[in-house]
Amino acid sequence: MGTEGMAEDDLAIEHVFGNFHDYYTFNPEAERIRFLSPSLRSSLYHAFHKQKRVYYMDIGCNEGKLTKAVHKALKNPQTLAAPTTETTFSVDNICLLNEKLQKHHQNPEYVTIEDGGTGHRKHFIIHVFIANVFFGVGDGVSKKIAKAKAAGQALERLNSIEAAEIPTSATEIPVTEELAKTTTEEPMELYTIGIDVDPVLIDRAQSLVKNDTTLHFEVADVMLGGQLDEICKNHLENSECFDLISCFSITMWIHLNHGDAGLIAFLNLAASKTKHLLIEPQPWKCYKTAIRRLERLNHKIPASFRQIQIKQNVVQVIESHLNDLFPYKTSLGKTNWSRLVLLYSKEPLNSPPKAK
Q1: I need a labelling partner for 178 at 20 to 30 A (CA). Which of 117, 223, 243, 304 fits?
Q2: Where is the Bin3-type SAM domain (predicted)?
Q3: Which CATH code fits 3-83+175-345?
C-alpha cells in the first residue's frame, strides 16, 4: 500500500474511534475551559482544599492540551482572577465585533487568503481588516471557525487600544470579597491523569509535561475489563475514587463501538469511580455525521454502528441515567457546536439543584 493509501486508512480509523490527531486545531481547548467559570472553580476548590491530595482523570484526553488546561485551572485558585491572553474561539465573536464597530460606523472585511487541506479535511485561513487595516487572522476546518477566530483577535486588539486610552486606575478589576478570599488560599495538591486509546496521542501528551510529576498520561481503554480498576490501583493513594472525572466528546465513540449496553456500562463505570463527573455527550446528529464521513472515505461501516437502538434521544437517555447515579446536576451551558456540558455530583457544590 502506498503512502497516500496508508494516510487515508489512518484517517478512516480516526473516524471509527474518534482519536483525531489534529483535534485541537478545530475544537480548541479554550472552548471547553470557559465552562470552568470562576464561581465553579471556586466551588470545586473549597470542596477539595481540605484533602491532602485531589485526583482528576480525563478520559479520552487526545493529545493532552485540554487536560493540561483543566489541570492548571483547577490547581491554583489564583488563576481565577487572571485575565486570559489567548484568543477564545467563539462564534459569538463575529456578532460582538460587528456590534463594537457599529458605533464607529465601520464594518469588518473578511478575506479568505487560502483554501487548503485535503479532500477529507478542509482548512481555511481568513484575515480580517477594519478600515483597510489588518486586525487579525484565524484558521480552521470551516470558514465559520476561521472567521470566528479572526474576529476574536480583532476584538482583543480593539480592547487593548481602548484600554490604552483609559487611565490605569480605571482599568483595575475590582476584587470581590469571595474572590479575595479564594486568591489568598494555597494551591491545592492536584494529581491529574489523562488516558486515551491512541499511543501516538499519548506520546504527544507526555511531551507537554516532561518535568511535571503531578500530570500523567498513559494509554488505556476503559472498556477493556479491569483497566480502569488498574488505573485506580496504580494512581490513587488513600482514596477509593477520583474527585473529578471528565469525559469531553467521547460518549458517541463508546456507544458506536460498544453498543447500547456498552454506553450504559461506561456511564456506570465512570460514575462508580468519581465524586464529580464533567461530561459533554454528543447528540444524534453527530452520529449521522460520523457515519457519513466514513462513507465518503469508502470505509466499511462497523457492524456495531448499525446495531445501536438508542438514537435521537441519546442525550436524554444519558442524562436520565446519570440522574439516577448522582443526586446533583448542574448544566454549565452549551459549546459553540451546540453540545451540553453537564456536571454531575455526589456531593453538593454551593447547593446546586437536584437532578430531575
Answers
A1: 243
A2: 37-349
A3: 3.40.50.150
DSSP state of 349: S
Pairing mode, if any, of strands 328-334 and 340-345?
Answer: antiparallel
Q: How many CB atoms lie within 10 A of CB 1?
A: 8
pLDDT in tens, 317-356: 999 999 999 999 999 988 877 899 999 999 988 644 455 5
Q: Where are the domains of the chain?
A: 3-83+175-345, 92-171
Range list of H helices, 188-283: 199-208, 227-235, 251-272
- Euclidean distance between the first and final Cα of the chain, in Å? 54
pLDDT, tens only, 236-287: 988 889 999 999 999 999 999 999 999 999 999 999 999 999 999 999 999 9
Cβ of 249: how many Cβ atoms within 10 Å? 23
The CA-based angle 104-109-114, given to 5 degrees, is 155
Closest CA to 192 of 245, 146, 240, 233: 245
Question: What is the spatial distance between Cα 61 and Cα 58, in angstroms, rounded to a whole number?
Answer: 6
Query: Residue 11: what pLDDT?
Result: 60
266: left (phi > 0), else alpha (psi -120 to 50), else beta?
alpha
What's the pLDDT at 156? 85
**Mean predicted lDDT score pLDDT of the chain:** 83
